[in-house]
Amino acid sequence: ETGVTQTPRHLVMGMTNKKSLKCEQHLGHNAMYWYKQSAKKPLELMFVYSLEERVENNSVPSRFSPECPNSSHLFLHLHTLQPEDSALYLCASSQARELGNQPQHFGDGTRLSIL
Amino acid sequence: AQSVTQLDSHVSVSEGTPVLLRCNYSSSYSPSLFWYVQHPNKGLQLLLKYTSAATLVKGINGFEAEFKKSETSFHLTKPSAHMSDAAEYFCVVSDLRNYGQNFVFGPGTRLSVLP
After folding, report:
1. What is the pLDDT of residues A51-90, one digit of tens each?
2. B7 — phi, psi (to 5°)?
């Protein structure tokens, strides 16, 4: 049990569907992250939220839309995805920078397959 | 800019023999360094971290790593491999930014353990 829960664990969707990925952390952290993990590629940081404000967007296509309603929850809304978006999507959380370089804690990911 | 190099994409050892996974980094700051492990269909689990305290860091499951500034290395070792150690291992360098942390992941090393 990592303290970071992602749902669903697996998702298959067509290119015209709209779905959302959910992440919830029970660690009292105040920064949350979305990563994309594709086969044979390094982890790609997609979005960062700190204190519920988005502070980094690494040029992610607009078909991915994040939402952070509070410090414990993070969503990734998906619409009109492409086959190359099939990947494992990982959520992570960490403590604030004022406490120094704290490790990020990861969920088990959502395996997304685009038909 | 920071970067991480994991020199071996795949390492294969026999059960009971030592493990060495190599990591070299570059950083403009005093870095924090982490090793994570990922088992199939799971998220990333923190093995150990270096944050400017002792240069020899002990982690979970018998792993340890030594920070060598002169060599810009942070290699991961274990005296005796176990079958359950077979997984993907990621070296991470981190610095603090305004929003929190910036994690830069290495490409990963896949460890196979032979009976």
Report:
1. 778 877 778 999 999 999 999 999 999 999 999 999 999 9
2. -70, -25
